[in-house]
Design a protein that fits this description.
single chain; mainly alpha; Serine Threonine Protein Phosphatase 5, Tetratricopeptide repeat; binds adenosine-5'-diphosphate; binds magnesium ion
Amino acid sequence: MAPPLQALIDTVAARIIAASEDLTTLDSAIGDADHGLNMKRGFEAVLADKANILAKPLPEALKALGMTLVMKVGGASGPLYGTLFMTLGKELPAEPTLDDLARALSAAVEALKARGKADFNNKTMLDVLGPVAVHLSSGQATFASVRALAAESAQATVPMKAIRGRASFLGERSIGHMDPGSRSSQIIIESVCEVLEGTA
Ligand code: ADP
Ligand code: MG
């Protein structure tokens, strides 16, 4: 069955835009206070381009969405979220199964690691996307377990010391704050789960 792309775009964009101030507050603690603004600008552009995106089959739609994020989000997170969605577009068939999604997300995590020269436990969005990709690949995932893992994983970035991104300039002082990109990744994952399980 083709995924409900319109609902996915509407819900993810609405949740990210609604969380913009919170994301910026997180980024003001260990970055430059723009993550929420960057993501809001990106997803407003996605909404503006929605008719064009929805006219395409899923793989091309995801690539177009990724391109829009690269162009509009800016910062470090723009190219990284762009890579995430463009890789999903490259890897997913038009009517994906959960197995397809697990494989595509794992490929996207690898692409993101290469793009950002980062690894797990560096206190970045990879610390949410990575565990979720591994969990999806286990074949044991439910919507509830994926949502819970995304939330736990974002929380688990609090005690980490940043090794990559702007927060790494703070060294030890990056400890004790949630990574903003991990929180935005959690919001995206939570939104996708809720749309797919019909509780959004
Ligand atoms: P900038 O850091 O340029 O101001 P944003 O504030 O929009 O960009 O995004 C910051 C987020 O990007 C971080 O919280 C982190 O999750 C993510 N990030 C930064 N650098 C990297 C990297 N090299 N690899 C993976 N994620 C990264
Ligand atoms: Mg920033």
